[in-house]
Amino acid sequence: MCGAGGVGKTTTAAAAAAMAATHSGGRVLALTVDPARRLATALGLQEFGNTETRVPTSAFTQAGARPRGELWVAMLDTKASWDDLVRTHAPDATTRDAILANPLYRNVTGKFVQSHGYIAMERLHEIHSSGRYDLIVVDTPPTRNAIDFLDAPDRMAEFFSSRLLRWLIAPYRSRMFTAASKPFYSVADRILGAQFLRDIAEFFMLFQTMYDGFVDRAKAVTRTLEDRRTTFVVVTTLEATPAREAEFFINALAERRYHLGAVVCNRMLPDYFTERAGAQAAEAMKTDAAALATLMAHRVADRDAMQGVLREIAESYLNYHVVAAREAEQLAELTVASELVVRVPALERDISSLADVLEVGRHIW
């Protein structure tokens, strides 16, 4: 599940996973990013984190569903995932402990270039390789550039082989300084402090011991994404900015020859708001509000109040008609086959129960 932030990716991912567990069976995992507390409550859980947690069958029963399979959920925790990565792939216990104890480790991994996108791909690779689940639904991190998380593994590998990194760690690999490098480190020491440079150099020297593993897993993730058993679902609303980002992402998937399974247009107004007959009725109500209020005088003592209410209702309907027309235009501009477009209507309430999640799921399914 991909797309801009705030378009409902997390709910859509949970809804798709819940429907798969209900109808297709098997073990289904929804790996989400920073889910709202109300979503955890809706799934019948107090909370969930980096460790996979099963949604109780009782939650489905209360929602009137009888699942054929199991639904598991986990939330991507960047810090915990980086810690697990180091513990699993450090070449030895000494290196592992040195990385985790490095004073810059927590700050660097939290604000690292591509850190969140990269660790999402690492987590996907680890879970996919384990074979524990028949279906994994991934709610990707919201990013300024919707393609960042796809490029994160390669960019991480490039960073570890970059010239800047070699310059930073070169003097600490050897006590031999070249004449050209001395001025750089002299100035850097004065500005940043020698201890800071030593800490940074130590951190990256330790991290480079895992470089080959980064590259190997990046290639494995790319193979997984290219596999025809992997499909991308682009989630968007039909507001201008999310729709533009969806267009960009659809084109980026095509360039990489990844499989686009569907585009989910979320929180759309019902079709009846686009109908001309409804708009004409609202126009008539607005124009003839006084006459209509007179006809209903036997029901309401205050004719002026009734007239105001009728006009307000008509005006509200016409405003929705304008928004629905704009949504229809935006939908028509999406450069994707119409059979791949799934429309999910706006609900009149927040997602507060598994029944609500499944209602969204039925539109996707």
Keywords:
four-stranded mixed β-sheet; 365 residues; single chain; elongated; alpha/beta; three-stranded parallel β-sheet; 2 domains; Rossmann fold
Describe this structure in words.
The chain has 365 residues and is an alpha/beta fold. The chain is 59% helix and 10% strand. The chain contains 17 helices and seven strands. Helix 13 (240-256) links the parallel strand 5 and strand 6 (260-268). The longest helix is centred in the last third of the chain and has 31 residues, at 303-333.
Main sheet record: 4 strands, mixed
Shape descriptor: elongated
Number of separate strands: 7
* Secondary structural class: alpha/beta
Strand and helix order: HEHEHEHHHHEHHHHHEHEHHHEH
Termini separation (Å)? 14 Å
Low-confidence stretches: 175-194
Q: Give the helix tally.
A: 17
Mean pLDDT: 81
Strand order of the largest sheet: 2-3-1-4
CATH class (first level) name of the largest domain: Alpha Beta
Question: How would you summarize this macromolecular structure in one to three sentences?
Answer:
The chain is an alpha/beta fold and 365 residues long.
Summarize the topology.
Blueprint lengths: L8 H15 L3 E6 L4 H6 L10 E2 L2 H6 L7 E6 L2 H12 L3 H9 L3 H7 L3 H16 L4 E4 L9 H13 L2 H11 L7 H12 L1 H15 L2 H16 L5 E5 L3 H17 L3 E9 L7 H12 L1 H7 L7 H31 L7 E5 L8 H11 L1
Parallel strand pairs: 1-3, 1-4, 5-6, 6-7
Antiparallel strand pairs: 2-3
Helix pairs in contact: 1-17, 4-5, 4-7, 7-8, 7-12, 8-12, 9-11, 10-11, 14-16, 15-16
